[in-house]
Backbone:
């Protein structure tokens, strides 16, 4: 079986129950066509880059599944005839699907000692309260020129 990933956008006027029902129907389409669903991630309501069917927002869902080409054709047919789906994309995955790490373990791996998890130093680590001093001769002024004090 091949691994696939599908991202589909649902109408923003659907309530939570409508989103759940549509996701269940998508899972049913894949399983009845001989595929197996690996994950369904409801990303949430997001702003669209451009209007689609007079909607400027959409509810994004990411579906990872394994199946044969007939399962993908049936899923595409469902997306085309469904009134709830305003846009979809199905791609064949080159790399098998792996469940993402939990946020806690990922965040702790990115933290470095002394930076509070920001990846940057603290404000007190540099001179002038967080601003770094520019090296001599690297400003916008010609060499030998001095900046005038503010207000002059």
Residues:
């Amino acid at each position: 079986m091949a691994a696939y990933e599908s991202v589909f956008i649902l109408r923003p006027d659907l309530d939570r129950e409508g989103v759940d029902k549509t996701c269940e129907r998508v899972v049913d389409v894949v399983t009845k066509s001989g595929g197996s669903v690996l994950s369904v991630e409801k990303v949430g309501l997001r702003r669209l880059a451009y209007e689609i069917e007079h909607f400027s927002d959409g509810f994004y869902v990411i579906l990872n599944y394994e199946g044969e080409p007939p399962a993908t054709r049936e899923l595409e047919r469902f997306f085309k005839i469904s009134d709830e789906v305003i846009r979809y994309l199905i791609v064949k995955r080159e790399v098998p699907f792996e469940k993402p790490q939990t946020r806690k373990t990922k965040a702790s791996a990115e933290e470095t000692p002394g930076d509070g998890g920001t990846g940057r130093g603290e404000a007190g680590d540099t001179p002038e309260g967080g601003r770094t001093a520019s090296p001599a001769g690297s400003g916008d002024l010609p060499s030998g020129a001095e900046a005038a004090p503010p207000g002059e």
